[in-house]
Each structure stands twice: as C-alpha cells, then as structure tokens.
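Q: Convert this sequence to structure tokens.
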Amino acid sequence: MEGRRFCLSLAICLGLMSCTNGVEVSFYSADDYPEKLSQWGLLQVTEQRLRIPDESHVYELNTALFSDYALKLRTLYIPAGESARYQPDDAFQLPTGSIIAKTFLYRTSVDGAIVLDATWDGDPQHLDLNTTQLIETRLLVKQTDGWDAMAYIWQGDDAYLNITGELMTLATTTGATINYLVPSRNQCASCHATDHTSGDIKPIGIKARHLHRPDPVRHQNQLRAWQQRGQLKELPDLDTIQAAARWQDTAIDLAHRARTYLDINCGHCHNSKGAADTSGLLLDYPLDASAAHSPAALGVCKPPIAAGRGSGGHLYSIVPGSAMTSIMAFRLNTTDPATMMPELGRSLVHTEGHVLVSAWIDAMSGVCR
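A:
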C-alpha cells in the first residue's frame, strides 16, 4: 500500500499551511515505511544546520530520560486541522497521523570525540553540525490502530531505517567509551508499552507535568503555545497544573527533583500496570496527592521480591538515611547488565542522577525494622 501523504504546501493542497524550505511532511502506513528519514519531511540537513518544517514543533521536557549524556531534539507533528486532547496525568490523546520525532546527538571536539558534559538550549538553529554527531532519530507514529515505533540511524546528511537495532562504540574526550545501543523495534516497545497487559505503545513525555515549561524556541509556555496554535484541546488554567521538576535546579525541593527523575527514567516500567509491576516498586510520580504512593511502594524499607545480584547484598530498596546501603542507589550506580537500572538506554552511570537520588535517600528519616 502506498504511503498516505499529508502535503503541507499551499501550492499543492489548498487550505493547508506552507512549509519551511519547501519541505513536505509525509505520513506512511505501517507496511510502507520509507528507507530514508528525509522522506518523512520531518527534518533535513541544510548548510550544516537542522531545519524543521513550520508544522513540526520543537518541544522540551522538564526532566528527560538519561541516555548516556546524549542531547535530544524533540519535535511533534499533528496533521493540519487536528489537535491533541489534554489529559491531567496520562499522555495526551493525539490524533491519527501524529508523529513524534526524537533525534539523539552529541557535541564533538575538534578530533571528533564525544563531549559528555555538553549543553544545548534545544533550539535547532543554535546547533552547528560541524561540531555535532547525529546518532539516530526515533519516531513514534500514530496509525489508525495505535502507535508504532522505529529508529533511523544517521549516515552523513540522512538517516536510514533500522528495524533490528545496532550497537555503536563511541569514543569520548574523557577516555570513556559509550556502547551506544540503537534499539530494535521490539526494544522500543519494552519501554513505551507502559501498560504491560495491553502491550500498547504510548508516548512517555507528552504529559502535562513534563511539558509545563517554556518552549525552547519561542520561550512561551509550551502548553499555552500548543493551545494557541489550536493543537491542544481542554487545557485548564495553567495555575492548576503541577509541573514536574527540572532535576538540575537546586532551588527546587530535593524530593520533588528526585521523584521527577525516577518518574521519567523508571516510571514507565515501575507503575501499577507496567512491566515491573510484580516488583511492587512504584516509581511513577502522580502529582495529584490523592494518587500518591505509600513509602513502602516507593521502596522505603521494602525488601526485594526476588533477591540476587540485583540487590548488591543489600536488604531494602531504600534505607532511610543511607543511600550507600540502598538497593536503588546501588543499581543506579552500576553498569553490570545483570544488575543495572534502567536495564536499557544507558551504558554509563549517570553520576549526577545517582548523586541526586542518593541525596534524597540520605535526607530521609526513619529506621527499617
């Protein structure tokens, strides 16, 4: 079946908005995905810059999933005339034809080595590809029967569809080596199937608490910007929406930052319906107090369901006041594939994230009996 195309050019489809640089966003059925990322029209390389069509909007999260210090460019495309539907705690309902794109990249030194401590404001116009290595672009595509996931690996000025996944070895300026995993299609589902029973793939970051922040390009609140474009329905007053923390912001409450960090990195599995529900450890972070998890569900003085190497010889997931003897801190601080958490998405320890969660545990009071 030929891919269905949503043409975004006034010259071709009357009534629809024009594109940046003449690029047309295209939509394809699941049995007709193109070989090249450029065929989607979601982004292109021009004069060593990434160009995004006007109809694909750049967005950021308050706290993002750690992926071996990779920087990420996130864009959302919603078909003309359609809109997302607000949900207070779950991912927004997006219409068929929506495409979420996440491009993973690193800043590089003059000799091409990866710079691990690089920062970026999220605006693609401020990204010089002469000192950037594009790694992959992952797509979540909303088909009529649900979401589908795939990855494209960058080679030169385009990226190419990869269904089976790939392991890359990347040298860094620190001498450390990143064993970077481009996920297979099935591995994408292992994180995005947040309901283990249904197995349905869903977006993780397109939630009000993660998006309640300034837009990286226009600098106005993202939720309000989406509403003003007519692409978000039923948005309540912004003052009624609780925002997830920016984990690096030390002016924000320590517990709020740590819980946000665990939510985005672990909550897609460790929730009441997720793949890790049998562990009894619930690390998603509902901001509604009525849905808050008990201390035991968060791991406080909770013994593991199945002891083994993953416990590191420790007795409880969290020992109040002692991150050093807590299983949670131990698993965040290892790269042993048999014991580390999260299980996928990293080959390095996120030192700063481990420090944050450890500080949260160390600040807890109480005794395990």
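The mean pLDDT is 89.
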